[in-house]
Write a structure and sequence with these properties.
The protein is of the alpha+beta class and about 375 residues long. The chain folds into two domains: about 5-190, 2-Layer Sandwich (Beta-Lactamase); about 200-360, Alpha-Beta Plaits (2-Layer Sandwich), CATH 3.30.70.270. It has ten helices and eleven strands. The protein has helices spanning about 5-35, 40-55, 160-190, 200-210, 225-235, 235-255, 275-290, 295-300, 320-335, 345-360, and strands at about 60-65, 75-80, 90-95, 110, 130-135, 140-150, 215-225, 260-265, 265-270, 305-310, 340-345. The strands form two sheets. The protein has a six-stranded antiparallel β-sheet with strand order 3-2-1-6-5-4, with helices on one face. A five-stranded mixed β-sheet has the order 8-9-7-10-11, with helices on both faces. The longest helix has about 35 residues, at about 5-35.
């Protein structure tokens, strides 16, 4: 065989490999796009995407680091899989991107000598690593990274870089759309004054709490003498009081995965996924702390709250009536002199029962 024929044959083989490589890349992009079309949850999309990348690219580990809080916030969610942990899908939070990666603005393939450590403590240090930034083109900023690793040296090529750069545009677009959707959704269920959830989110929050936890304690809260605060100090000052109470409530229940909802006017609802005794301890801390709010000191006025409490399943079996019972317990607390916690009693259950009977039959 002549030298020229041999060279042409080699060129044909290389061209065939390149065509196969390009075909494989297009297939992966197509599969990811098809999967994305039917997926509404961003986490589920990340689960599918990391699975496809692991399988098709043949890598040891696949990470997608994304800042979902905004470009100025140092908070990243990392979605990843690795053969070293049985290819299970994981999600973890990080305060910052790893050193040497955050500064990258373009696709970068690391040599073995440049890889100084592991990105996740469960994973061993790889011999190959490629990093592709996720770009927010509207703000000309980087908000995440796609990172692939392999145990072999020089595993990633220029072809891999081109493919991942194309894929990164798609991932970035989906992430930005998701963030926009989340922002719009949050605004629709948040009270603009207090930033607590609004009444429209109440039923969803109650159902979600029961679906996730065995114990749920609900407190209906009324701001004592709020009309007098508005009348004597002004409505803007009254708004400041409501904001102070909401911020305090959110801060106290956040550690126990509780929720705060503005029920209407000067009333709030707190839901805590704890049994009665533990929840009452938390709510009593809240009640006492209201008196020492900075806004109360600034306005030189006395601010207190009254709470009606009911717990499922310790106090009530019919979860659908927990709010009604707690609300009636609150009314008794107001009648007794305010600035107190009142637990639901047989009286509250009887009143709610009679009310329901009247709603159904039209008579008491």
């Amino acid at each position: 065989m002549s030298k020229s024929l041999y060279i042409n044959k080699e060129g044909a083989i290389d061209l065939q490999k390149e065509l196969q490589r390009q075909k494989g890349m297009l297939w992966v992009l197509g599969e990811i796009m098809k999967a994305a079309f039917n997926i509404t949850e961003f986490k589920q999309l990340m689960e599918v995407m990391t699975d496809i990348l692991m399988g098709v690219m043949g890598v040891t580990t696949c990470y997608i680091w994304i800042n979902m809080e905004g470009t100025n916030a140092e908070h990243y969610t990392t979605f990843f899989r690795s053969n070293e942990i049985k290819n299970e899908f994981n999600e973890v939070n990080h305060s910052i991107l790893p050193k040497g990666i955050k500064e990258l603005k373009e696709v970068y393939v690391f040599d073995k000598d440049e890889i100084k450590g592991t990105l996740i403590h469960l994973i061993h240090v790889p011999s190959s690593r490629i990093v592709v930034p996720l770009k927010d083109f509207s703000e000309d900023s980087i908000f995440g990274m796609v990172i692939l690793e392999h145990k072999e040296e020089n595993f990633f090529t220029s072809y891999t870089a081109v493919f991942l750069e194309t894929l990164s545009v798609f991932i970035a677009s989906k992430a930005q759309n998701y963030k926009l959707f989340q922002s719009v959704t949050e605004k629709s269920i948040k009270d603009p004054l207090t930033e607590a959830y609004n009444r429209g989110y109440l039923n969803e929050a109650l159902n979600a709490m029961k679906g996730k936890y065995n114990d749920v304690t609900v407190a209906v809260i009324d701001t004592d003498n709020f009309k007098s605060i508005n009348d004597e100090l002004g409505h803007m000052e009254g708004d400041m009081v409501l904001k102070g109470i909401a911020q305090l409530a959110k801060g106290i229940v956040e550690e126990v995965s509780g929720e705060v909802i503005r029920y209407g006017g000067d009333e709030f609802i707190i839901m805590i996924p704890k049994g009665l005794a533990e929840a009452v301890h938390i709510l009593e801390e809240f009640r006492r702390s209201v008196h020492y709010l900075k806004v109360a000191y600034d306005l030189a006025t006395d601010v207190t709250v009254t709470l009606g409490i009911c717990a499922y399943p310790e106090m009530i079996i019919d979860y659908s009536q927990i709010l009604r019972v707690a609300d009636h317990a609150l009314l008794r607390g107001k009648a007794k002199g305010k600035n107190r916690i009142v637990l639901a009693s047989d009286e509250d259950f009887e009143v709610v029962k009679r009310t329901l009977s009247h709603d159904i039959t039209g008579v008491y």
